[in-house]
Design brief:
The chain is α+β, with helices and mostly antiparallel strands and 258 residues long. It is built from five helices and 15 strands. Strands 8-7-9-14-15 form a five-stranded antiparallel β-sheet. A hairpin with a 6-residue loop joins strand 11 and strand 12. The longest helix is centred in the N-terminal third of the chain and has 24 residues. It is globular. The chain binds magnesium ion (2 copies).
Length: 258
C-alpha cells in the first residue's frame, strides 16, 4: 500500500531529511586520508543523538552502525570498518534518521584526496542522474519516467546502472512502497501524485551493472570489481516541480572550504 503524506507530514520528513544533510556535513568536516569509517560513524551517531533523533540504520535488520559506508567497488550497505581511508578512495556515505516519528534518508559519495579524472566524472554523472530523476518526480509523471531519466543519463557515459537495488517510498517507515528503480520505461509504472514522498538513489557503476553480496549479508559489490557511486535525496512529489526535502548544501559548503 502506498501512503500519501499531508503537508504537515512532509514538513516533518523535511526536518528529518535536513538533519541527515547536516550529519553528512559532520562527516564531510573530518573525512580525509587516514581516518577510519568507524570514526565517521561515531561522529554521525553522536551528532544525530545530540539533535534528539535516532539513527535509522542502526539495528535495522541486524545492521550494526549509523552509517552505511561503501568504499570503491562497494555499491551500498558497507559496514563501517577500522581500516583507514586512503588517497584515491571514493566513499559513499548513506545516512538515515528518525525524528518526530518520520524518517529522512540521503547519501553522498566523497572523494578522498586525489581521485582520477575518470572516477570524478562518474561521481559527477551519478549526481546529475539523481537530479534528472528528481526533475520527473512531479504529479502526472510515472515511476518509470524517473527511472528512465536516471538510466538514460548514466548510460550515455557507458556506465552500468544497478538493477537489484532501488529507491523507495519513505515516511513513518524507512522503506515504503513504491520501489523506485534507477531504470525504467517512460510512461510505465504507478502514477506520481502530490503527497508521495520517495527516496531516489542512483547506484551507478564505472563498469558493468552486475553486483553480488558479501558473506556478511550486507555489503553489495560490483561483480567486475570496478568502482561504484551513490547519491540519494528524499523528495516530495509536487505539481510542476519536485520538492527536495534533503540537501547537499551543508556537505558542499564544508567541501568547498577544504
Ligand atoms: Mg539511504
Ligand atoms: Mg534509501
Amino acid at each position: 500500500m502506498i501512503t500519501y503524506k499531508s503537508a504537515e507530514e512532509i514538513e516533518l520528513i523535511r526536518e528529518s531529511s535536513l538533519l541527515v544533510g547536516k550529519a553528512l556535513a559532520e562527516v564531510a568536516k573530518i573525512i580525509r586520508p587516514g581516518i577510519t569509517p568507524l570514526e565517521l560513524d561515531r561522529r554521525a551517531e553522536e551528532f544525530i543523538r545530540d539533535s534528539n533523533a535516532i539513527p535509522a540504520f542502526k539495528g535495522y535488520g541486524d545492521f550494526p552502525n549509523t552509517l552505511c559506508i561503501s568504499l570503491n567497488d562497494v555499491v551500498v550497505h558497507g559496514i563501517p570498518s577500522s581500516k583507514a581511508l586512503i588517497d584515491g578512495d571514493i566513499v559513499s556515505v548513506d545516512c538515515g534518521v528518525l525524528k518526530n516519528g518520520y524518517y529522512g534518508d540521503s547519501a553522498y559519495t566523497f572523494e578522498i584526496g586525489e581521485v582520477p579524472a575518470a572516477i570524478k566524472q562518474l561521481l559527477m554523472v551519478t549526481k546529475e542522474s539523481l537530479y534528472k530523476g528528481i526533475e520527473k518526480a512531479i504529479e502526472g509523471m510515472r515511476i518509470g519516467d524517473v527511472g528512465f531519466a536516471v538510466q538514460e543519463h548514466a548510460e550515455k557515459f557507458g556506465y552500468g546502472v544497478v538493477r537489484e537495488m532501488v529507491g523507495h517510498g519513505i515516511g513513518k517507515n524507512l522503506h515504503e512502497k513504491p520501489e523506485v528503480p534507477n531504470y525504467g520505461k517512460r510512461g510505465a509504472g504507478i502514477k506520481l501524485i502530490e503527497g508521495l514522498v520517495i527516496a531516489i538513489e542512483p547506484m551507478i557503476n564505472l563498469g558493468k551493472a552486475p553486483i553480488f553480496q558479501d558473506n556478511d549479508g550486507w555489503t553489495i559489490r560490483t561483480k567486475d570489481g570496478k568502482v561504484s557511486a551513490h547519491f540519494e535525496h528524499t523528495v516530495a512529489v509536487k505539481k510542476g516541480k519536485a520538492d527536495i526535502l534533503s540537501s547537499f548544501e551543508f556537505v558542499e559548503e564544508v567541501l568547498n572550504k577544504k
